[in-house]
Amino acid sequence: MAKSIYAGLKVLVVEDDDNSFDGLRVTLKGITGVEPIRTRGIADTLAILDEFKAVARGPIPTPDLCLALAIIDQNLSLARAQNEPYYQDVPVGEEGVFLVPHVNARLPVTQVGILTAYYGSDNKGFETGRGGGHFYFDKNWSSPDLEKRIKEILDGFLDAFKDYNHTV
To answer: Which one, of 33, 25, 36, lies nearest residue 7 by Cα?
Structure first.
């Protein structure tokens, strides 16, 4: 069997709910062959982003060395209960939106999206991370096009990766 073009790509899922994470994990691992990296709140996510930022300080030899995709739950209310200092100035229900510019600033090639439980609402992932995100997903894991959408997003990362290495 031929190796998938997505094999080995790193995906971060910021999700404080175990059931929601497990639903997405199976699909992501099936596409990339790699267990997604999971964080549950703001502090642990910023730490992971800083680890990947250290890699992205110049030309990156292969795309599997950087973070391809960050899927961030819009509402990290379970993590908020841990009383991290970051939550003091972040409105309830917008914890994930707060993280989007932090991903963009540290990792310019990473595709960033918001995960939301607001099915079909006007919310659209709080307008997809207040304009800084590339996509949003609702938590409807039975969606027949979920795998197709993730592959399209990873294609966007691979294109951005090529462009990034040509400009560094």
So the answer is: 33
Per-residue model confidence (pLDDT) at position 120: 53
What is the token pair recorded at 5? 């073009």
Q: What is the pLDDT of residues 10-53, one digit of tens each?
A: 999 999 999 889 988 988 888 888 899 999 999 999 999 999 99
* Residue 3 domain flag: no
Provide the residue range defining the domain that includes 82.
10-167
Q: How many domains does the chain have?
A: 1
Q: How far apart are CA 157 and CA 152, in angstroms?
A: 9
Distance CA 21, CA 40 (A): 10
Query: What is the reported pTM?
Result: 0.87
92, part of any domain: yes
